[in-house]
């Protein structure tokens, strides 16, 4: 915790120094709890007076104050607090998967965010851009699952498959400026050199101008410097047991769950959260420690040899029975052998 506090103070000091060099006001992340508003009298000589209520989370860059609806709240109080209000709606946000096997969790989390966006605003189409490589490795979302789990109509999700990364970046830059789209998703695999700080800065600037979010999905790549103000690291979490009137149903599979770690944010606050997606309410719920489930709750057994049923779990073997050669145990009897395999008689 001491290291985290020192890191936060360092980041805040750098922000103040940058603001001093640029001649602008530094970012204000959160109003002090219990403190009265300062500079409450707005005058032409003081246009940047803080007239927000106590405890209201705001972000001020230069002379502009971000409105409360500038952030997409996930509904998980811990994550939203750590992100100082949620994910910015008009910005580039990076959702990172450490391995290719996390592609499903990354895509599911991105679709959950899209569902929240469509729930709050007009139900505009969403453009999903990717290369042929990533679609071949990760696949496409299931159309029926889009409506059943996320409340997204299949015709609202548009896909654009580009043969090369340069083509995908060009499509994303052109789509990021369009206000006719609710959101833009760019899915990339690995750590390509073309996806550098300059390319992400262009995406972030166009997202800000259009007032629309751009989600950058990074699959199986290392975390690199980008212009995205927020980076979330995603992986699948074990689902909790399904809740019934009588209590948890043993052996059942509950709601989809995600492990979300904050890799980068405006507040420089680290954190790891387990979120469950409610497919009925189309909202996130934060899972507490007592609701967690073991990663491997079912014993892993070897596959059946002849396909008649699961093999028994391995245990302590004390002795083997005295039988014939194991190699000859599965051989047919002489009467069952094929005719052409019988010994031939001469003459």
From TrEMBL:
Ranges annotated as biased composition (Basic and acidic residues): 281-294
Top-rank taxon, per record: Bacteria
Gene3D superfamilies given in the database record: P-loop containing nucleotide triphosphate hydrolases
Transmembrane segments: none
Region named Disordered: 281-347
Name used for this protein in its record: Protein ImuA
Source organism of this protein record: Mesorhizobium mediterraneum
